[in-house]
Amino acid sequence: MEKIDKLLNNILSLGLPEDVLKNPSIVIEGHKVVKEVPYPGILLEKKVLDDRIKVSLKVLPNITVEKPVHMCLSKLSPGDQLIDITIDIGENSKVKMVSHCAFKGKNIKHISRTNFRVRKGASLEVSEIHYHEKDIDILIDAKSEGVVEEKGSYKSLFKIDSNNAGKVRIEYTVDILDYATADIETKIAGRDGDDIYVKDIMYLKGKYSKAIAKSRLMALGNTKAEFYGETYGFGDYSRGHIDCSEIVRGNEVTVKAIPIVVVNNETAKVTHEAAVGSIDKKQLETLMAKGLDEDEAVDVIVKGMLG
After folding, report:
1. What is the DSSP letter of 251?
2. Strands 181-190 and 167-176
3. What is the 3-class SS of 111-180, one letter each residue?
4. Average pLDDT in the 15-31 region?
C-alpha cells in the first residue's frame, strides 16, 4: 500500500487534479493496473499481455453516469506503454470520461489504440489531458476510431499545453449516422524540438448528421506542426465544418493546415476555415510589464488560448 501511495503521489506531482483518484476511476502505470474504483452500471475488464494492456469499458443501456469516469495512464520511467481501449456506450446512456496522462523520464513511447461505439440515443464525452515533465523525451502515437449511431453524440478533446509535447501523432476517424453528432477538438502547444501531427477524418454517413473538427496548434521555437482535417458529406442534409487555427512564434517554425472537404450529395454541406497567426505583441508586453519574463508571459498566453 505504501508503494502504491508513493506512486500515486509521484503522478500527482506532475500537476494532475487530486480528484483523478476518486470515484469512479482506474489508474494504469505502464502495463499494470495500480488502482481501480468500480461504478454501478459500468463493466470494466482488463487483460495484461506481455507487451501491452487491453481495457474494455462498457456502459449498460439507459444509464446516466453522474460522475466523470477517470482513467489515469502514466509512464514514469523509460520504455513503452501500449494500450488497447474498447468503449461501448449502451443505448440512451450518458457518460463523461476524463483521461489524465502523466509522463516522466526519457525514451518513452505511449501508443494507444481506441475503438468506440456510441449506440442509439447515447452520449459520450471524452477529454484526454496530458501532463509532461519538463524536457521530456516522448513519442505519443494515439489513434481513435468509432461509430456514432442514430441520434447519438460524441465529443472529444485532446490537450497538451505545458512543457514539451514531444513527438505527437494523433488520428481520429469517426462514422456519424442518422441525426448523430460528433465534435472533435485538439489543443497542443509545441515547444523547441517538438513535432506534432494531427489528422481528423469525419464521415457524415447519416441523414441530418453533423460534425465539427477543430484544432488549435501553437508552435513555439523550433517546432513542426501539421493538421489535416477531412470531412466527407455523404448523408442527406448532413452538415460538417473544419476549423483549424495555428499560432507561431520564432523563426525556425514549420506549420501546415490542410482542410479537405468532399461532398457527393447535393443536399449536404461542408465548410472549412484555416488561419495561421502570431502571439499578440501588445498582450505579451502587458504581461511583461507586470513582472513576468518573456517565457513566463508566453506560457500564460498559451494556457489562455488553449483554455
Report:
1. S
2. unpaired
3. EEEEEEEECCCCEEEEEEEEEECCCCCEEEEEEEEEEECCCCEEEEEEEECCCCCCEEEEEEEEEECCCC
4. 79
**The three three-digit cell numbers of residue 58, written as one number:** 462498457
- What does the pLDDT look like over 159-178, one tens digit per residue? 998 789 999 999 999 999 99
Whether pLDDT at 24 is above 80: no
Given a cut of 70, whether residue 4 has pLDDT beyond it is no
Per-residue pLDDT, 34: 85
Residue with C-alpha cell 489508474?
27
**pLDDT on residue 247:** 82
Return the closest-CA partner of residue 171 out of 186, 182, 183, 155. Answer: 186
- Give the span between the Cα atoms of 26 and 10, in whole angstroms: 16
Q: Can you tell me the distance from the alpha carbon of 188 to that of 184, in angstroms, rounded to the nearest whole number?
A: 13
pLDDT at 151: 98
Q: What is the pLDDT of residues 88-97, one digit of tens each?
A: 999 999 999 9
Name the nearest CA neighbour of 218 among 243, 196, 190, 199: 190
| Sequence-ordered strand ranges (E) for the chain | 25-29, 32-37, 42-48, 53-59, 69-75, 79-89, 94-103, 108-118, 123-132, 138-148, 153-160, 167-176, 181-190, 195-204, 210-220, 224-233, 239-249, 254-263, 269-278
**Which cell numbers in the block locate residue 2?**
505504501
Q: Which residue has the cell 463493466?
A: 43
Q: Which of 44, 13, 10 is nearest to 30 (CA)?
A: 10
* Beta-strand relationship, 42-48 and 108-118: unpaired
Threshold 0.70, pTM exceeds: yes
CB atoms within 10 A of CB 38: 12
